[in-house]
Design brief:
Length: about 240
Amino acid sequence: MPTRFWAIADTHLSFGRPKDMDRFGPRWTNYTQRIAAAWNELITADDIVLLPGDVSWAHSLPKLMLDLNWLAELPGRKVLLRGNHDHWWKNIEAVRKIVTPLGFYALEGDSITLDGVVLCGAMGNIAPEDPYYVEDPKKDRYHRELARLELALQHGVEQRADGQPLILLMHYPPFTSDAKPTAYVKLITRYAPTLCLYGHLHRSEEWQVAVNGVYEHVLYRLVASDYIGMTPQLVWTTEDKT
C-alpha cells in the first residue's frame, strides 16, 4: 500500500492555555472541532501528517501535554516543526524527549526518512527585504534560520538516493509577504527539494500573492490551517513521481 503524506500548519492548539481564536475572524470558529472532523475523515493510522509550525500556544509542559495528547489521539504519524508561536519548543533535544514517547517526530535543521520519503525542516524567518521585517540584532533569527535551513537541506540531500523525493518543511514562507524571492529561496533552489511546505500567512491579501506552484523547479505549497479551511491537504503519496 502507498503511504500518503498530508500537511496542515498553524493548528494553534490551546486546550491548556485557552485562546480566543474567534477574534482572528470567522475562519477560526470551532477550528479544533473542524480540524478533528476533517482529519478523522481523511487520514488513516498508516498516513504521515506534516505540521510545519505553530502547533500549540502553550508555554509550560503541563499545558502543552493537553494539546499534544489531543493530537496524539488523531490517526497518522506526525512530524512537527517549530513555528514562531511555539514558545514551548526550547531546543530539539528537549522537544524530542517530549514528543517521541507520543510517537511523533520533530525536525530542526536536519532530516529523517519515512517510508522512502526524505523529510527535512527549518523554521525560517522574515527576511530583511520583507515589509514586516524587524531587526533583532541580539538573536539574529534571520541568519540563524538561514544556517539551519542549509543544514536541513544538506542533511536531506545526503540521505537522498537518486530519484527519492525530498520534502522541505518551513514555518515562515521563504518568499517575502509580497512574493519576492529571498536568500532562503536561493538556498532551496540550489538544493532542489521536490516540495516545500510552509504556513504562517493568515491575511487574505498575503494569500492572494503567496507562491503556490513551481518556482525554479521546486513546488511550493501554503498549508496554513485557515487558508486550507482547517482541512489537512494531501501533498504526496509514495506512488507519486519526482
